Amino acid sequence: MAVLAASAQNVLTKSPGCYVCGPKNPAGLGIHFGHTAPFTAEARTIARREHEGWNGILHGGITFTLMDEAFGWCLHFEGIQAVTAKVETRFLRPVPTDSVLCVRAWVTQDRGRVVYASAEVTSGDRETVFAEATATMMRARSGVENKR
To answer: Per-residue pLDDT tens for 79-108?
Structure first.
């Protein structure tokens, strides 16, 4: 079992191999998030056929993954290193494959170590909400050891 001690200045770092945003993951989604407002992250992507569950419908796990990644980015852009502790997701409509999507997350409350956020996946024009989620995020502690 390897033990990796995290430095006090850089507890968590974004991985170039991240499935959602990693530029060096050839099997990943390759999504780039932007810092659109304070404590807000947004990305646009296309629901690809290779990620469908039912014919013509994006797999719900991918829809969830997009929102989970957006949660991380809305904090990362503010210099806050945090991980998802709990999420409640509501799938409102099937996401059609080949459609342009907007993924957005924003902080709703900061309570010190715990941060609350909301996210949504909408159509590219933002007229249709496909899914929404609320999350409890935990700030990473400096000096915490990650065990594998």
So the answer is: 999 999 999 999 999 999 999 999 999 999
Q: What does pTM read for this prediction? A: 0.86
DSSP 95-115: -BTT-EEEEEEEEEEEETTEE
The DSSP-derived string for the chain is --EEEPPSS-S----TT-TTT-TT-TTS-----EEEETTEEEEEEE--GGGBSSTTBB-HHHHHHHHHHHHHHHHHTTT--EEEEEEEEEE-S--BTT-EEEEEEEEEEEETTEEEEEEEEEETTS-SEEEEEEEEEEEPPTTPEEE-
Q: Kindly state the percentage of the chain with pLDDT values over 90.
A: 74
